[in-house]
Amino acid sequence: MSDVVPPEVRPKPAVPAKPPNVGAPSPSSPFPPQGPGIGGGGGVSGLPPSAIPVPIVNHGHSVGHNIGHGVGHVAGHVGGHTATHNGGHGHGGSHNSGGGSTLLGYIGIDTIIEQMRKKTMKTGFDFNIMVVGHSGLGKSTLVNTLFKSQVSRRSAGWARDEKIPKTVEIKAVSHVLEEGGVKMKLTVVDTPGFGDQINNDNCWEPISKYINEQYEKFLKEEVNITRKKRIPDTRVHCCLFFITPTGRSLRPLDLEFMKRLSHSVNIIPVIAKSDSMTIEERQEFKQRVRKELEMAGIEFYPQKEFDEDMEDKSDNDKIREAMPFAVVGSDKEYPVNNKRVLGRKTAWGIVEVENPNHCEFAQLRDFLIRSHLQDLKEVTHNIHYETYRAKRLNANGGLHPISSNDTQESNL
Question: Where is this region: Disordered (predicted)?
Fold first, then answer.
């Protein structure tokens, strides 16, 4: 047996200078940069670990022993030990002097987003929007303008130029929209003219009942022993509440409705047909509406307590200051400056729907679809539906499977 030199008296090997061709790996390179103990000689630094020459040392062990245990073992020795320890056994991972891990080049975790995108595009999206307000405020027209399609009360015998019929009952119409390969099933829930009757006592109850019925349907599917892989989502994600452009104040009935339903659904107030007011009247009316909602303790979406971080708070504060959005809806096109635009024709000109100088329709569309659509769905599921679910199960004495033949309705 040969004499073994203790580690404390073993001479330290000279560290060769770093060759000029050693550098940081490119993001696409699967191999890490070689340390001085391996890549310091003979131009092998550019080779993968499997091509590194294996030197023979005292006890018949080699760097190849470490390589056989994985590239991570070799990198661990390079980062935390000297080349003289190649005869020892490798560790289970990469190490460095700071105790952190050293990534071995490109792994591919950034593809998780792409994987999620592909899977979500296959399943598609659901979005359910409800419109509530006085008759004649253009609720159905505005929804058609938002999605640039005849999605509200669509029927085979209804031509585009025909006047939209008056809503006499709560009716849900679904339509599949596709843009850039992304499919979304949009459901528009149209309601009868809110507050049109002579006696408007409890006129919000049919709307509240419809919202809770959709929660009940989802809950029944969720607690079934054998449930569907993907539960159909008919829950109302957003309620656009149309305010009459009186220029004075909100009706007591409007305040009562929003107070009763603000804890069941995401309410977004909008001032309909805002072209009937001047810019000054519109601004004063918006401030008055915000003040009345605040005094009544009504929180519309996006609620302050749901802001997740400072960035969300900053963005949502700007939106809250701009609400209620003063909008104009139209599904008719008119020629303006050699191009066709959506607008309303008056005796003195064309009110352009998508022109931010004319109304705030563009801000509403960007907020509703381009920036907060997914958040609307998450708040519906995590806040409003969970609140309903907790009350329902507590009243039912706990979690019990509900059979498909059970027609029991919610008593909430």
Answer: 1-52
